[in-house]
Each structure stands twice: as C-alpha cells, then as structure tokens.
C-alpha cells in the first residue's frame, strides 16, 4: 500500500460540483460582492512610528531608515480623491458594498466609515495595520483583533462581523475570530466561488466567504497585467458573464476587489463604471454586502439566525 500523503488539513474537494440547492434572495442568479479596501494610513510608515516603510505602491521602491514621504503621499490619494469618486459611483448604481477597513485607517479617517454607513454599506475588518498575520504570535494577534474591532466600532457605530487578513494568516487566525465571538464570517480564503462552512462554536458554524485576487484592481500594480481602465472592465465582465450563466442552475458568488488609491485614479475609475453598468443591466443580480451573503447562506442551509456571542477568552487592545 502506498504511503499516505499528509494533506495538512486542506480541502481539495469542496462541493465537487454539487453545491447546496440554495437560491439567493429574490431568486437572484448571482451574488455580486463589491469590496472596497480602506488601507490608507494603515500602511507601514516610519513617520507613524512603525518599524519600517511600506514599499508596495505605484512604484515598488524600498526607502529604509528614513521617512518615505513619496509613499505616504501616494496612500493619502486614496482618502482625499479616490474615495469620493468610488462612493459616488456606488451610489449611482445602487450598489451595497463592503468596506474592508484597517482599524488604524478608520481611526485616522473616521468620516469614511460614517459616510459608508449613511450609504448603506457594511464596514468589515481588515486588521489593525495593513500587514500579514502569518508571523504573529497568539498574544500579538489577539491584541490586533481587539484593537481593530474597537477602532471600527468607534468610527462606524457598530463592531465588524467580518474579517479579512492581508494575504497570509497565522495558523491561529480563524480560531481567534471564533473565540472573539463577534465574527459571522471571514474572507481568508481564495478557493471557491461560493461560501462554505467551517467548524465554529457548537451550534454556531463559521462562514467563509472566499475572496479573489484576479477580479481585483490590485492587478494595476507592477506586473499585474492591467494598464487601462478597460482591462479591469473586460476581465471582470468576462468573469461576471461566466458566473451569471452558471447561476441559472446553481448558486454563484463573485467578489470584486477595489482599493481607494488604485481604482480611484481618473484613468481607472471608468473601468469600474463600465463593469458596474454592465452588471446592473442584467436581471437577477444581487449587489450584496458580505454580511448579507453570509446570513443568506446560513438561512439557505436551514441554520438558525446568527448572533454575536461572548468571547471565550480575553481580547484587549
């Protein structure tokens, strides 16, 4: 008998082409999740007391040991000019979106959360700083989660129920979110076009809403493949059309990732406008906040309504 290959707890099967027979609210064929990442002010910056400068922006350049005013200015563009453009466009097309926000970003620009809530958007958690959690010890990560929740609640008026770590999580991230008790879902996966459940607390399964790096304006970054606004529109429309067709027979979800400082540029915002106009022209499209998708998935599976629970361990900023 061949040696057993360790799978590391990974799930390669998913639904195996037989997803649950769930219909989205109103009989929609496709749940379209627009995610607006708010990271400006949460990027690493010596000027803000961090250990280093962020070096991923329009140009990839490391400035070490001294403050990088170029990088800081680039990120400031997102809140100053990008957000007003994106906000107006979402409002024009009646899109309910999820703001995936860093806690420190909203502590510095709380009006963005207030405006988003006024417009009917969800404010979800993207960590305290714009950083990976993969190397964090448990105590550091627990404090980062608590600090993020406190900052978002202060800016938005309610605590976040969703979480998405920048890139790699730690092995503890999902367990800590469940322990914290206030998270309905996380988006720390890229492995499906549908939500799925993982073990949470007894009787309270945890929802995973996979995210996507391809239908994402981050591909305007160096080497990402997008140059013109129409590159973004064409790629997202192609993904939309495929998922929309499949949605006639089975549930489908599409995630579109945006960043204030990227798609908010004048030469790129038209690509988002063309995509949203195309999607809005089709019948059976549900522009959905991610918390609404998670609630709908639970309901479709016959699970009881989700409510926050008390923490199982201490979470202090």
The major pleated sheet works out as:
5 strands, parallel
Rg result: 19 Å
SS summary, helix count: 9
Report the helical percentage.
Answer: 25-40%
Q: Extract low-pLDDT stretches.
A: none
Describe the 3D structure.
It is a single chain. This protein is α/β, with parallel strands linked by helices. About 35% of the residues lie in helices and about 15% in strands. It contains nine helices and nine strands. The strands form two sheets. Strands 1, 2, 3, 8 and 9 form a five-stranded parallel β-sheet that branches. Strands 4-5-7-6 form a four-stranded mixed β-sheet, sandwiched between helices. Strand 6 and strand 7 form a beta hairpin. Helix 3 packs across helix 4 and helix 6 runs parallel beside helix 8. The protein starts with about 30 loop residues before the first strand and ends in a 17-residue tail after the last helix.
């Amino acid at each position: 008998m061949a040696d057993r290959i360790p799978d590391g707890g990974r799930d390669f099967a998913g639904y195996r082409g037989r997803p649950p027979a769930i219909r989205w609210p109103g009989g929609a064929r496709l749940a379209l999740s627009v995610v607006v990442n708010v990271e400006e002010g949460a990027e690493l910056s010596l000027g803000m007391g961090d250990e280093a400068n962020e070096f991923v922006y329009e140009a990839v350049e490391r400035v070490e040991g001294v403050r990088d005013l170029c990088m800081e200015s680039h990120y400031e563009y997102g809140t100053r000019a990008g957000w007003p453009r994106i906000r107006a466009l979402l409002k024009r097309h009646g899109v309910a979106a999820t703001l995936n926000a860093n806690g420190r970003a909203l502590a510095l620009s709380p009006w963005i959360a207030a405006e988003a809530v006024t417009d009917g958007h969800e404010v979800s958690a993207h960590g305290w700083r714009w950083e990976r959690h993969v190397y964090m010890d448990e105590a550091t990560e627990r404090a980062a989660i608590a600090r993020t929740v406190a900052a978002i609640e202060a800016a938005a008026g309610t605590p976040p129920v969703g979480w998405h770590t920048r890139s790699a999580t730690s092995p503890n991230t999902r367990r800590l979110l469940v322990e914290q008790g206030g998270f309905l879902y996380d988006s720390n996966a890229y492995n499906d076009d549908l939500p799925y459940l993982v073990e949470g607390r007894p009787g309270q399964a945890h929802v995973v809403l996979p995210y996507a790096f391809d239908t994402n304006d981050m591909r305007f970054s160096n080497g990402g493949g997008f140059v013109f606004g129409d590159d973004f529109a064409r790629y997202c429309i192609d993904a939309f059309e495929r998922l929309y067709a499949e949605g006639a027979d089975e549930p489908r979800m599409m995630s579109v990732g945006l960043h204030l400082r990227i798609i908010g540029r004048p030469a790129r915002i038209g690509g988002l406008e063309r995509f949203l106009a195309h999607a809005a022209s089709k019948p059976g499209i549900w522009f959905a906040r991610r918390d609404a998708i998670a609630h709908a998935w639970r309901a479709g599976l016959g699970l009881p309504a989700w409510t926050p629970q008390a923490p199982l361990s201490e979470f202090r900023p």
